[in-house]
Amino acid sequence: MSRHTNNKRLNxxxxxxLTSPTPMHSIxxxxxxxxxxxxxxxxxxxxxxxKGTQQGLGTEKTPPLDLQQEKLDKLVxxxxxxxxxxxxxxxxxLHYFTSHKAPNQDALPLTQVIWHQLHNFCxxxxxxxxxxxxxxxxxxxxxGQWQANEVVDLLTYSQQNNQNIxxxxxxxxxxxxxxxxxxxxxxxxxxxxxxxxxxTRCVRQHSPTSLVAGPGSAFWPRIGEAVKPFSNITVPFxxxxxxxxxxxxxxxxxxxxSRSPVKTRAATPRNLLSLNALDSFEKYAIKLDDYxxxxxxxxxxxxxxxxxxxxxxxxxxxxxxxxxxWWADQLGRGAxxxxxxxxxxxxxxxxxxxxxxxxxxxxPDFWVSWLWEKLMGNEVYQVQSSDxxxxxxxxxxxxAGKCTLLIINMTSQFRMIHCHHFxxxxxxxxxxADSLTAKKVRINGIRPKFRNGKVKLSDFPKLSKLNLxxxxxxxxxxxxx
Length: 481
Fold this sequence. Notes:
Elements: H1 3-10, E1 13-18, E2 25-26, E3 32-35, H2 38-42, E4 45-46, E5 60-61, H3 70-77, E6 82-86, E7 94-96, E8 108-110, H4 112-124, E9 127-133, H5 149-160, E10 167-170, H6 177-181, H7 189-206, E11 211-219, H8 234-240, E12 247-252, E13 255-256, H9 269-272, H10 275-295, E14 300-306, E15 309-310, H11 324-336, E16 341-344, H12 364-375, E17 379-381, E18 383-385, E19 390-396, E20 402-409, E21 415-420, E22 425-432, E23 442-443, E24 468-469, E25 473-480
Parallel strand pairs: 1-21, 3-6, 3-16, 6-9, 7-8, 9-10, 10-11, 11-12, 12-14, 13-15, 14-16
Antiparallel strand pairs: 1-18, 2-17, 4-5, 17-19, 19-20, 20-25, 21-24, 22-23, 22-25
Helix pairs in contact: 5-7, 7-8, 10-11
């Protein structure tokens, strides 16, 4: 008896159905996006080499990122077009080169050279910049009286140099100021709304094509915005705004690394494969959309920052194949829920990076992102699976007249898949690895490699016509409609 025949008999049958030929909604063509943390870009305190944290930061100083690497350009181009968000905990301690103020001793300098290199990097690689401007008010007596002078100077300089900032936001994780800057630094929702109105008017006047996003609230697994009412500021903030937002965004990490001083769900192999853990994203995403509908109906919802584990990712897990399951699921789930953009922390730097900073080699999540970009279009369809351990999402394909089904096998067994109402199956791409903690993945049985800076779908062999998916695998099935 052949292995495949044996598998057919032993493994469970799963039915996957396309419930309607009409898409539910569309997402941004730049849906899959990523961040470069300001600490990595400008050379601040970062996670690589750090054993713990200091005020939400790593303990080790890092050199500024070299954005003029040809290999980095080629890797980024294979994922685009995208937004790139430049933010992070040190965004509130930046000293802009355009500022007339003397820098504080703990300020991180944003130099003119770094600013120009960032915009050149964006232009070369079809990236639209989302930039976190500093709020920087760490005393309650100053909050509600935020001054726009430094932001005006940087926006004016950028306009004069034809440097586009597609999205502007004020402050990094303002509901978590207590964790990064001390309890007395935490702003009230009403004062923050007043300051944000001032920021929004500033952006509208000095960079009229830019969108405004906020508040970028941090949500923790299991506890949401954490301490009520102290840091549960999203609803009263949105309610008290007088200037409308273009984007309501939030930050979410499903797990915490061993560096994190607070752990509501630790990054462990068991948790990384937990279906309940993956469901938490949907719970909070629905809340955010409810808030948007109630208070900012004109706005989109974005996940403005998300990685596998807070505080730099978990070593030997976040950069391994086991991390790819939450990422594939969150991409599919976020799009299903109508979020327009999903920003991955991070493009480069940290254990949770898509690209290893030292070697410029892609981590496993890079290849999930690459196949998503190649195969998943912007129109989202409703699909159902008869097995709750087989997660499924469907989009139109990049080519007209086709659709792509994402199938994530969270089990350790083969599954026989039966698809209904999808049309003719044309191609399949399956991501597997030699083990869940492997650093290298396989696509259709072979390791993906860049040849002369390029990798193509045609590089991978065709799979057999059996409707079988491997244990712990991430699958993209292409159909004609």
